[in-house]
């Protein structure tokens, strides 16, 4: 009887040791929140191309070329009591001009959602952790039309505007092209930096080979750092 009990104790002890070893090997999940880039002091400078198509306007295809600088600032408590961070945006016509404050947005990570408050509209930019299975509506919390998003090219090295990044991902937002409309929208994020590239095109081609109405907006990173 004592021998059986001894064997039983040894068996139980072995199971416990295996269980403890498994717990030690189990790593905490990595949500890759760094893609939001929302560290205080982080700035990014972009070259921006902004085109507005309107055949009824004095300038049917109005093109603006300028630079945009974004900067993550101090902590801010939003109207829902959430801890967010100020996200200031500056513009200038050329690199020789001084920066002028354009507006102040707010950003935060709420659970698994990376959100921006843009022009008082709450937008879900990222959902963590990034996987091929993730799908979400970027406009789920605002009055705008649904914008269904999903990930592509996750954790890939990429060069944008001559700047190389070790780990990037693409947020696909829209891709519809036919004889009437051409809609293509996506954003590229780099780990520890945030947005590095934006491609927005929503054009109407109903009566001609060139856009009659619509908008195109392109961001390309120039530089980044802390200040």
Report on the architecture of this protein.
The chain has one domain (33-226): YmcC-like fold (Beta Barrel), CATH 2.40.360. The chain is built from one helix and twelve strands. The protein has one helix at 2-25, and strands spanning 42-54, 61-77, 83-92, 100-110, 113-118, 121-127, 135-137, 148-160, 163-177, 181-190, 194-204, 213-226. Strand 5 and strand 6 (121-127) form a beta hairpin. The chain starts with a helix and ends with a strand.
Write the layout of secondary structure elements.
Elements: H1 2-25, E1 42-54, E2 61-77, E3 83-92, E4 100-110, E5 113-118, E6 121-127, E7 135-137, E8 148-160, E9 163-177, E10 181-190, E11 194-204, E12 213-226
Antiparallel strand pairs: 1-2, 1-12, 2-3, 3-4, 4-5, 5-6, 7-8, 8-9, 9-10, 10-11, 11-12
**How many helices?**
1
Spatial separation of the terminal alpha carbons? 74 Å
Number of strands: 12
What is the general shape? globular
Strand content: over 45%
CATH architecture: Beta Barrel
CATH class: Mainly Beta
The name of the CATH topology is YmcC-like fold
Largest sheet: 12 strands, antiparallel
Summarize the structure.
The chain is mainly beta and 227 residues long. It has one helix at residues 2-25, and strands at 42-54, 61-77, 83-92, 100-110, 113-118, 121-127, 135-137, 148-160, 163-177, 181-190, 194-204, 213-226.
């Amino acid at each position: 009887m004592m021998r059986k009990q001894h064997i039983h104790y040894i068996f139980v002890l072995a199971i416990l040791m295996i269980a403890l070893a498994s717990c030690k090997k189990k790593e905490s999940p990595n949500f890759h929140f760094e893609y939001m880039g929302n560290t205080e002091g982080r700035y990014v400078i972009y070259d921006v191309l902004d085109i507005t198509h309107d055949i009824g306007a004095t300038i049917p295809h109005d093109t603006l070329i300028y630079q945009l600088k974004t900067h993550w600032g101090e902590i801010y408590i939003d109207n829902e009591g959430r801890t967010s961070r100020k996200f200031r945006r500056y513009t200038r016509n050329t690199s020789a001009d001084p920066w002028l404050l354009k507006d102040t947005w707010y950003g935060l990570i709420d659970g698994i959602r990376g959100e921006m408050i843009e022009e008082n509209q709450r937008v879900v930019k990222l959902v963590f952790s990034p996987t091929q299975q993730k799908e979400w509506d970027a406009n789920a919390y605002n009055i705008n039309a649904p914008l269904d998003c999903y990930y592509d090219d996750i954790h890939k090295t990429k060069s944008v505007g001559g700047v190389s990044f070790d780990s990037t991902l693409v947020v696909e937002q829209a891709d519809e092209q036919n004889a009437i409309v051409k809609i293509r929208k996506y954003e590229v994020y780099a780990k520890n930096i945030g947005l590095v590239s934006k491609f927005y095109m929503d054009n109407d081609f109903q009566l001609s080979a060139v856009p009659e109405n619509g908008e195109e907006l392109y961001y390309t990173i120039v530089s980044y750092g802390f200040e």
